[in-house]
Design goal:
This protein is mainly alpha-helical and about 290 residues long. Helices cover about 50% and strands about 5% of the residues.
Length: about 290
């Protein structure tokens, strides 16, 4: 049984403080030291993770090196005509590459193996997008070629129906004319449907290609639009008072009546007889 290092009293198993003196049981080992003045404030912390190594080489790197060597030997055996050995080494190389990817994904970021794995993953994704794009374009091109062929056949048949319609109109055969017009209308409807389907094929292919391109593009952070800056109430153009329109008479009342014009009184005019029978008027003085 342990005893207290200060007073010597016996301590029960797992106790953290002495029942006699109250001192902690690890008082003789734990020391509180002051922090050095040059390490105060925000101090950067670096986390280091130890990697497993095999004879000084990380397993991921070793797998990649052995895979490259196996692939080289496989190419040599293929060139010399030893196909069985070449196939075996090619399978071993592919297996080691898969092991490299699995080991590299578990390593922390910043290591060479992880960077190599990420680069190969990016290349694989881009290659997959390119292959999918080529396949989508090929399928769309085949469908468009088939639709255009059908449209050409429809237009040729429509020309023949137009000739039949003209012949029926020339002969005065109303029944044949109605039949030809109905067949032409039906053919035009089918041609419009095929053209609409062709446009849908083009739009669907473009949307698929755009989605596949977005999968390999780096993520971009879009900045939120800033609100327009408005000047303070006392700055810039001050707000104008609201304009109140002048009252007008209702439209159904017409023009309002105008006040009567009263003439102003003027001086009286008294006529005077003239010497030759003409009236001479003079202005009377007021």
């Amino acid at each position: 049984m342990a005893s207290c290092r200060v007073c010597g009293a016996r301590l029960s198993r797992g106790s953290r403080y002495c029942t006699q003196c109250g001192r902690p049981t690890d008082a003789g080992e734990t020391h509180i030291l002051d922090l050095p003045p040059e390490e105060t404030g925000d101090v950067s912390i670096h986390h280091v993770r130890a990697e497993r190594r095999l004879y000084g080489v990380t397993p991921a790197t070793a797998a990649l090196v052995v895979a490259a060597a196996a692939l080289t030997l496989a190419i040599v055996f293929f060139a010399t005509g030893h196909w069985p050995l070449g196939l075996v080494l090619l399978g071993v190389a592919m297996l080691l590459v898969l092991l490299f990817f699995e080991a590299a994904r578990r390593t922390p970021r910043g290591t060479k193996s992880r960077s190599t794995a990420e680069a190969l993953d990016g290349f694989r994704l881009r290659a997959g997008v390119a292959a999918d794009s080529l396949a989508s374009r090929g399928r769309a091109a085949r469908e468009l070629v088939q639709i255009r062929r059908e449209l050409r056949q429809m237009w040729a048949f429509r020309s023949q129906l137009l000739l039949e319609l003209g012949d029926a109109v020339y002969r005065g055969d109303d029944e044949a004319s109605r039949t030809a017009r109905a067949r032409i209308d039906e053919l035009d409807r089918l041609a419009a449907q095929r053209e609409e389907y062709m446009q849908q094929v083009v739009e669907t292919t473009q949307q698929r290609l755009e989605r596949r391109r977005l999968e390999v593009q780096p993520t971009m952070i879009a900045e939120a639009p800033r609100p327009p800056e408005t000047p303070a109430p006392g700055e810039g153009n001050p707000p104008e008072p609201a304009r109140i329109p002048e009252p007008y008479p209702p439209p159904d009342e017409g023009s309002p009546p105008q006040p009567a014009v009263i003439p102003e009184p003027g001086p009286a005019v008294i006529p005077e007889p003239g010497p030759q029978g003409r009236d001479v008027r003079r202005t009377a003085e007021p």
